Amino acid sequence: MTALRSIFAKDIERAINPVISSGSMDHWEDELEEYVITGEVNKNLNLLFDGEAYNGTQLQNTGVWISGNFGSGKSHLLKMLAILLENRQTSAGNNALDLFLSKCDGDKLLQGAIRKAVHDHPGESILFDLGMVAKDG
After folding, report:
1. CB contact set of 79 (below 8 Å; sequence gap of 6+)
2. Which residues, in sequence order, are bridge partners of residue 89?
3. Which runs of consecutive H residues, i.e. helices, occur in the chain?
4. Residue-number span of the structural domain to which 84 is assigned
5. Confidence check: pLDDT of 136 > 70
6. Could you tell me which of 83, 86, 127, 133 has the fewest CB atoms within 10 Å of its CB?
7. Structural contact between residues 50 and 117, judged by C-beta atoms closer than 8 angstroms
8. Helix, strand and coil in the chain, % to nearest 5
9. Domain contains 8
10. 20-73, pLDDT tens digit by residue?
11. Domains of the chain: total
12. Residues 55, 121 contacting (CB under 8 angstroms)
């Protein structure tokens, strides 16, 4: 078993939260480092950041609607976008933008669009769950 453990970059027995909460920033550095941009996420990031959708010249009070099936990763993506657009700094001195760009699998157009979004339109995110607001309200 010792040999098998040696092929993994991280401790395979570490605690991993099975649910990512968009409202909790307790472990955001690990979550960002381990985030994987799938083909579907890549496609939708291109739709968001390419052209006028987010990087347009008329950008004002932009909101983003994320929808999908239960367990499809909406909250995780939302949290990663919030961290990215705020360009948070890690405790090691890295910034979220550089970490996120390294995950874009060589997609130079997407990397450029994301870089433009973060530099030209830095954001502060307000994360909330409409379902929870509706139940409480």
Report:
1. 20, 21, 22, 28, 31, 127
2. 95
3. 2-5, 28-34, 39-49, 52-55, 74-86, 96-101, 108-120, 130-136
4. 27-56+63-136
5. no
6. 133
7. no
8. 45, 0, 50
9. no
10. 766 677 778 888 888 999 998 999 898 888 766 677 665 566 667 788 888 888
11. 1
12. yes
